[in-house]
Amino acid sequence: MNTFLALNTPPAGPFTGELWESNRSLTDEIIYHPFCKGMSDGTLPADAFRHYLAQDLLYIEQDARAFAITAGRASTYEAFSFFIDMARDGLEIERNLHRDLLPFFGVERPDKMSRICRGYTTFLLDTALKASYPESVAALLPCFWVYRETGLKIRKDAVKKNPFQKWLETYSDEAYGSYVEQFIQIAEELLFGATLTMRKKMHYAFRRSCEFEKAFFSEALNIKKDKEKKTGQLF
Ligand SMILES: Cc1ncc(C[n+]2csc(CCO)c2C)c(N)n1
């Protein structure tokens, strides 16, 4: 059976297929994460979303830097041009989302990165600067692919009049989908041309970023729980 049929954003070939498949339980944990379910059914506590959004504000800037560095290291003009666009247009898509959500949820720029935000952005920048170009591509891919898959899935089940509507729309938008497809194609070609050792390194980088994506959501939910513990409030 072709299990990829269940994917909204399918792999570009056998190598990205293997990449997704070997991380399927982890990506499923992200897609079906209680944080995402909360966005979909509108029950996500506002404090959890505020923590997420504030940290995301810092995350997207560093992520765009990692894209720009990766562009500079690209092995083809096509990939160079794509990553340059992602550093600029990708960040713009995120900024548009934040422009709406930040005032709505009353979120301001935080002074400090959280543990997971620091860990994830340090990993992406370190990989872009110090590891190989294919590894950096693999590290950056979950940010697009996992968000696309999550966005499409949870939008399908989402309640109407949803405070997180803008988030759901951003990642299920067609133009965003086309960026994700191009990105997966670039990763497929790199995996195809890679040695076994390099392929393993790319798998490691992809998995590490997936772990951070999951932790990013978990941290936001746990912050909410920690606050409840301190104040004794349940709602
Ligand atoms: C934790 C976290 N992971 C992924 C994204 C999605 N995303 C962030 S920046 C960008 C475009 C490239 O600069 C995309 C698609 C997010 N917002 N937050």
Automatic annotation (TrEMBL):
GO biological process: thiamine biosynthetic process; thiamine diphosphate biosynthetic process
Domain Thiaminase-2/PQQC: 23-221
Single GO molecular function: thiaminase activity
Enzyme class label: hydrolase
Recorded catalytic activity of this chain's protein: 4-amino-5-aminomethyl-2-methylpyrimidine + H2O = 4-amino-5-hydroxymethyl-2-methylpyrimidine + NH4(+); thiamine + H2O = 5-(2-hydroxyethyl)-4-methylthiazole + 4-amino-5-hydroxymethyl-2-methylpyrimidine + H(+)
Gene Ontology cellular-component annotations: cytosol
A Pfam family that the UniProt record links to this protein: TENA_THI-4
Record pathway: Cofactor biosynthesis; thiamine diphosphate biosynthesis
EC annotation from Swiss-Prot or TrEMBL: 3.5.99.2
Keywords, in A-Z order: Hydrolase, Thiamine biosynthesis
Family to which this protein belongs: Belongs to the TenA family.
Function: Catalyzes an amino-pyrimidine hydrolysis reaction at the C5' of the pyrimidine moiety of thiamine compounds, a reaction that is part of a thiamine salvage pathway.
PANTHER family for the chain: BIFUNCTIONAL TH2 PROTEIN, SI:CH1073-67J19.1-RELATED
Protein name, UniProt field: Aminopyrimidine aminohydrolase
Organism: Marinilabilia salmonicolor
